[in-house]
Amino acid sequence: MLKTLARCNNVEDLRLLAKQRLPGPIFHYIDGAADDETTYRRNTSSYDSCDLVPNVLAGVEEIDMSVTIMGQKLAMPLFCSPTALQRLFHHDGERAVARAAEKFGTMFGVSALGTVKLREIGEMISTPKLFQFYFHKDRGLNDAMVERAKEAKFNALALTVDTITGGNRERDLLTGFTSPPRLTLRSLASFAAHPRWAMNYFFKDKFELAELKDYVEQGSNVAVSIGDYFGSMLDQSMNWNDAEKLREKWNGPFCLKGIMSVDDARKAVDIGADAIMVSNHGGRQLDGSRSPFDQISEISDAVGDQIDIICDGGIRRGTHVLKAIAAGAKACSGGRMYLYALAAAGQPGVEKALNNMKVEIERDMKLMGITKLSQLSSNMLRYR
Q1: Residue 179 belongs to what domain range?
Q2: Quick check: is 281 catalytic?
Q3: At 153, is the pLDDT very low, low, confident or very high (cuts 50, 70, 90)?
Q4: Whole-model pTM above 0.85?
């Protein structure tokens, strides 16, 4: 049965609508992951092995789901994680996500591989903005991106640390996905089968990596897979000293995205990071790695009183958010949960995704017998 936005009550519904509306290679870029995609599936299934233990008779008529991350107050404990290439999925791209995030009072993470200029996003919304930074070999490019993020009044910077080379994304190899899309007989057939997407892609503003196009041809004018981009353009010599220097250059709230071990969490504290995103890049890098949720408790036990911990990945339900916070996260973030929605219906789709999650979180807080997220604790969790 064909999906419509009004009938999309959860992330899976939005995923199916996105699949209807996108050419195959574009959909599978969002939907795919590395190798056998074991970690990708585990990111969500890990929540199934953990049960919530609610309290009752708690007087939950009024609840407060706000959180403060890196000094930024968010109206809900879930924000839009930075993701690349958004105008491939819908012609409005980051513009649609920015407006939707502002409407729900949450943070919008913008990727260095974004398709709308940071300045435009900075002028568009006043709610918290996170710039996600890839450490390129070109140090001039790195410096320019930091300065542009400052000029656009972004509130925080997140250095992604788990893309030292590209993951083995076999779905992309199978479909021939590149940025920008390479025109072949197979891809043209898929584009023709989705005329609305094709008309927008070919006749709206030219697709490009907005902050990178003046420095590198790859991704904007030269078709390249994301894995090849990471392997050829990013600096594989990046180390903790580089991360600390970047924090000093930014001189504002600073986050490391892609921390998975207690040892690295402690090092993040040592270099003065304000937050860590416990993340495996949506299972798109190292297949067979742990899920973020499975790591939250031990990382929180080690450094939870010294740094903000964000659980990034696998979020599909409001109960997932509550479980992660009970385990020690301060907030959660997700990518696919709003990318499917963006692809499905642009800004109204992203608003639908965020509203679905907001309604679930509010309901689930009441069913847990809490009025504030700070009332969640590990005592409310049982692991199978």
Answers
A1: 7-47+60-375
A2: yes
A3: very high
A4: yes
